[in-house]
Amino acid sequence: DALLVTDAQGQVIIAQNEHKKLIPASTLKVFTGLVAMHYLGPEYRFPTDFFLDAESNLTVKGYGDPLLVSETLSAIAQVLAGKVASIQDVVLDNSFFERPIRIPGRSRSLQPYDAPNGALCANFNTVYFKYHQGRYVTAEPQTPLVPFVLEKIRSSGLQQERITFSQKQDDIPLYVGHLLRFFLQEAGVPVKGRIRVGHVRPDSDRLVYHFRSRFDLRQVIARMLDFSNNFIANQLLIAAGSAAYGAPGTLSKGVQAAKSYARQELAIEALQVVEGSGISRKNRLSAVALDRILEKFRPYGNLMDHQNGLFYKTGTLKGIKTRIGYIEGPENAFYRFVILINTPGKPIEPVIDYVLESLPF
Predict the structure, then answer these.
(1) Are strands 2-7 and 12-16 parallel, antiparallel or unpaired?
(2) What is the pTM (predicted TM-score) of this model?
(3) Contact call for residues 292 and 280 (beta carbons, < 8 A)
(4) What residues contact residue 50 under an 8 Å CB cut-off, 6+ apart?
(5) What's the gap between Cα 82 and its chain centre?
(6) DSSP secondary-structure letter at 175?
(7) pLDDT band for position 180 (50/70/90)?
(8) Does residue 144 have a cis bond before it (omega within 30 degrees)?
(9) Which of 131, 133, 229, 343 is most buried (most C-beta within 10 Å)?
């Protein structure tokens, strides 16, 4: 286990095993946010492009937007309704990210924290449903249970749950297409053909709509931290890797970008990062490294959860409890703290109390 508390000038107040590399769990997301800020920029907004060809096929190309949700697709359909009268096929181009993307530590469960990543995804690759009066219905009014989804739900055998899509059979991009078809038809644009996976053809496809997310990168990171969303974290890491080293986005490029940033911008050499969410136990950072990350993240500290002058990010895996953040003191003073407990069964609350009691105010 490790503990490190420093003041704004970097003076050490408490230090225990501060150089020992331990499992950070979801506190790693703060570092991932910094990496994304560096390579993409705080004003970055994820794009999604829509192309039309001579046969009225609509091709949708994704670039990893982690917040492409039902409300957004509905709004996009309204815009497209002003540009196209009817559509033949809806073609999904998810080639901007490598396929499939395998995240170390992620299992094949249907739980949201195990949602897979991709260049073109909707609703975090999850569907929330319930069984009501003899039939499946949506548990989120903004998201219809299109027939494509109902087939997946019935095969799951569950009565009420939030399930994820697998990377098999192109389920991830196809879900985007089926949702978009629903919203297009709701907006008065008939879709006459199929929903299929394909590619943009630069020689024959015409860009009809360049959509940019209404969320800038700071807002995306705030949501990642607030919900401790593993899917968002690795979407950001892969997108950062593609910005640094070119498409297609891959996990290895994201990891390479993260390590380069740590070495060149934070002077951190001793870290082991294999993905961006903290779900993998192979991630290892020291308290000193996390303190440097917090120092750099300070301008964005208000993106963290906060209460009573405490800004923090927690992390939890089986037998692992971690917490990092900032403590506001009097006269605009603030302190950084890193708590890494890798001992199963050891509580974190007494350590937090000890930290608060040790501060000079």
Answers:
(1) antiparallel
(2) 0.94
(3) no
(4) 58, 59, 60, 61, 76, 80, 207, 208, 209, 210, 211
(5) 31
(6) H
(7) very high
(8) no
(9) 229
